[in-house]
Design brief:
disordered C terminus, single chain, 7 strands
Length: 176
Amino acid sequence: MFLSKPRLQHYLFAHRFLRDKAFGNPAATVDDLSRDGGSQYLKMLWMTTGLTSKDPEDEFIEPDDIACYPFLIGDKYRAVIVEFPEPLGPTEVFFVAIVIPIDAKRGDKCPCQYFTLELSSDGPNDTVLGEWKGSGHLNCGLGPPSGGIISKKQLSLACWAKPMTPGSMNASLRNG
């Protein structure tokens, strides 16, 4: 089923709540989501924010499919991919990737990149890779087709096509 508009709960969590949390304290966010229990922590946040942010017309979206996958990008960056419940409307996300320098500590004002792999408004088989830079959302081009399950590896490779620094273009991706 493809919806003509995004469900508010899904959209606000990925494009506002988690984004603001990541930009507010990048290392703490990546640390919290990367630790054992990170997925459970995120499910609790989803439920708490979802009860207050969903459109009254929409059903509550259960957090069953939410999961966190930490990994390293070479020896310079660490990241976490967040998997979301299945997107049904445009701009709802399949995944978010939060990328920070490997040596960032809680409370540091460090660079943070926030990528999204979203369902396109063109239809249920099209995706768009996006990136948030502060309060601005950039469309970085087409993502992989969603005709099946999009893997964490596909998102990882798509995200690193636009590296944080010119020297990281050749960074190797290692699962963490």
